[in-house]
């Protein structure tokens, strides 16, 4: 028999009754019923119940061991009997009558329970992450992540993509976030940067003629944490294709995402094909460029209705309305609750009216609306009795943010929200440039390496703020999975685009010399995207926080509480790297 086990803790069944076996695992739980010990033994594969009879050496040994001690046990498989079967366990028909016990790894008193979710705080969980990962939910999430990555590799390879590695140590690049810098020992005063994304390298692979590339790529960005963003590092399905247009990229990703989410979505439906929604339309209808389409409500711009209105609170402002049907049975609590929610999002309040019989309006602002206002709103919103209408007024961006959140919340509270479904969409036609409100400077609004729609002619003849780019985002259930683009591969277009954004020719050649040089030696049209693996698994696992799908994440303050990073280094190491420290004054 093997030194440690003949079977795993998830393997034995009724057919194995009366077989002598050896198992190894962690002491998951223990119950003493009149001197008879029942032990749940856990390993990676599952749980098997052990039984130790009174007066036996096994009973004596197991009764004194702390939970999470690692043991080897020998014993015989016994049937539990029909009345004692545990239908929640694959091994629930049997138990092991233990004859011998060996302690393989003693355990101190554990700081929190493993066999139950006991509400321990996240800092404690991350400090003892190796214990936290033993919990069923966390173990399941990490194994889901492994399975998803394996499936991605299979699906991409089947579609003719080649998995190629790109450098981790590289040059700094303006990807939109702060770089993590690595000082050079050999080149005093110079730094490598960890890649925010393999953007330039994957484009260089296309120029080198590899046609279809992918990678489960590690990316590093020094940015603050959010529920859907882990500070420090993350992983993405990085892909690029040559001789393609936007729709070619969409077809590949739609197929891969649909298959993945159907395979691992635990029965949740994937809506397909994914709708294409222009950026400006998304902002108007949903108040967001990452809309949650499970909310079956849309916003409507009614600014024109109130442009010359006597209702001073709305006059001359951007006004967005949300019509919610079937609210006749809703109490005042429904309306007050949404108002409170809007205030939490930053609003000063939430104006609303109800539509009663004969389309008569009631509610806090109904008395301020003249007959023409009511008629125009009825036509614009398709109002009928039973509708409630909520309004937001102010600056475009502010109203979009607040009313976008209210749209989703109202749909949930009023029963117009789809559950158990993955609703994907593409957001397309992003503006190439935007104006910095503080400086008035024209800046790139998205990826600077994107191809402008209309090419060089558009850059030369159009108002920069009217130029659209071949840029796109893929969104699922209100979570942005990735941005992508058809890339600019023409040097003249690159020079001109950066000139509009305030870069000189010399700036471009200094910052992007390698890319620019490659473009001058025959570059194919190409494009790609990079959906985040962490966010995909977060959605599939139905977890609210991305850190629940990463084995060893940093906390919200970008600290590794288990390994103690970031850490100080001694003076000799700093000297070797040609560095001196200047700490901020306390």
UniProtKB/TrEMBL annotation:
EC number: 6.1.1.12
This protein's record includes keyword Ligase: yes
Domain of life: Bacteria
EC supergroup of this enzyme: ligase
Gene3D superfamilies hit by this protein: Bira Bifunctional Protein, Domain 2 (3.30.930.10), GAD-like domain (3.30.1360.30), Nucleic acid-binding proteins (2.40.50.140)
Membrane found in the keyword field: no
Catalytic activity of the protein: tRNA(Asp) + L-aspartate + ATP = L-aspartyl-tRNA(Asp) + AMP + diphosphate
Matches recorded under PROSITE patterns: AA_TRNA_LIGASE_II
Location(s), subcellular: Cytoplasm
UniProt binding sites for L-aspartate: 175, 221, 446, 487
Location of the Aminoacyl-transfer RNA synthetases class-II family profile domain: 144-553
NCBIfam families assigned to the protein according to its UniProt record, in alphabetical order: aspS_bact (TIGR00459), PRK00476.1 (NF001750)
Assembly mode: Homodimer.
Protein known as: Aspartate--tRNA ligase
Organism the protein comes from: Streptomyces orinoci (Streptoverticillium orinoci)
Recorded name of the encoding gene: aspS
């Amino acid at each position: 028999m093997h030194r440690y086990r003949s079977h795993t803790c998830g393997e034995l069944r009724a057919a194995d009754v009366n077989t002598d076996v050896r198992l190894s695992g962690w002491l998951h739980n223990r119950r003493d019923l009149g001197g008879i010990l029942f032990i749940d033994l856990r390993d990676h594969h599952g749980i098997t119940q052990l039984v130790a009879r009174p007066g036996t050496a096994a009973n004596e040994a197991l009764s004194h061991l702390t939970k999470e001690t690692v043991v080897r046990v020998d014993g015989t498989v016994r049937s539990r009997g029909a009345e004692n079967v545990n239908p929640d366990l694959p091994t629930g028909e049997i138990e092991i009558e233990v004859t011998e016990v060996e302690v393989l790894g003693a355990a101190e008193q554990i700081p929190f329970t493993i066999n139950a979710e006991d509400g321990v705080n996240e800092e404690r969980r991350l400090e003892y992450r190796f214990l936290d990962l033993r919990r069923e939910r966390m173990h399941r999430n990490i194994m889901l992540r492994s399975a998803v990555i394996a499936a991605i590799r299979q699906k991409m390879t089947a579609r003719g993509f080649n998995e190629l590695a790109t450098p981790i140590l590289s040059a700094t690049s303006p990807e939109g976030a702060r770089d993590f810098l690595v000082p050079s020992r050999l080149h005093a005063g110079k730094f490598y940067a960890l890649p925010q994304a393999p953007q330039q390298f994957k484009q260089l692979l296309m120029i080198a003629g590899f046609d279809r590339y992918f990678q489960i790529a590690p990316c590093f960005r020094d940015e603050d944490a959010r529920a859907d963003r882990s500070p420090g590092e993350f992983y993405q399905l990085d892909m690029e294709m040559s001789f393609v247009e936007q729709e070619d990229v969409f077809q590949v990703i739609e197929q891969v995402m649909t298959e993945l989410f159907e395979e691992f979505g635990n029965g949740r439906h994937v809506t397909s094909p994914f709708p294409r929604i222009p950026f400006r339309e998304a902002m108007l209808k949903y108040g967001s460029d990452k809309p949650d389409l499970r909310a079956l409500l849309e916003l409507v711009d009614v600014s024109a209705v109130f442009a010359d209105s006597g209702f001073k609170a709305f006059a001359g402002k951007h006004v967005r309305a949300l019509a919610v049907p079937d609210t006749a049975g809703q109490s005042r609590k429904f309306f007050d609750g949404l108002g409170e929610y809007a205030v939490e999002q930053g609003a000063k309040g939430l104006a609303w009216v109800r539509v009663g019989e004969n389309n008569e309006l009631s509610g806090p602002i109904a008395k301020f609306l003249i007959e023409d206002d009511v008629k125009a709103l009825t036509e614009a919103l398709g109002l009928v009795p039973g509708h409630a209408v909520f309004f937001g007024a102010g600056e475009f961006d502010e109203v979009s943010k607040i009313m976008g959140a209210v749209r989703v919340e109202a749909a949930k509270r009023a029963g117009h929200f789809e559950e158990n479904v993955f609703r994907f969409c593409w957001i397309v036609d992003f503006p190439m440039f935007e104006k910095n409100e503080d400086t008035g400077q024209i800046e790139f609004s998205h990826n600077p390496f994107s191809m402008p729609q209309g090419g060089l002619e558009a850059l030369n003849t159009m108002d920069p703020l009217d130029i659209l780019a071949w840029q796109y985002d893929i969104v699922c259930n209100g979570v942005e999975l990735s941005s992508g683009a058809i890339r600019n591969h023409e040097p003249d277009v690159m020079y001109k685009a950066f000139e509009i954004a305030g870069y000189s020719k010399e700036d471009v050649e200094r910052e992007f010399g390698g890319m620019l040089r490659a473009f001058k030696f025959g570059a194919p049209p190409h494009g790609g995207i990079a959906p985040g693996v962490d966010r995909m698994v977060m959605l599939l696992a139905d977890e609210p926080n991305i850190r629940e799908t990463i084995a060893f994440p940093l906390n919200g303050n970008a600290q590794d509480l288990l390994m103690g990073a970031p850490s100080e280094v001694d003076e000799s190491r700093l000297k070797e790297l040609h560095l001196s420290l200047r700490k901020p004054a306390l």
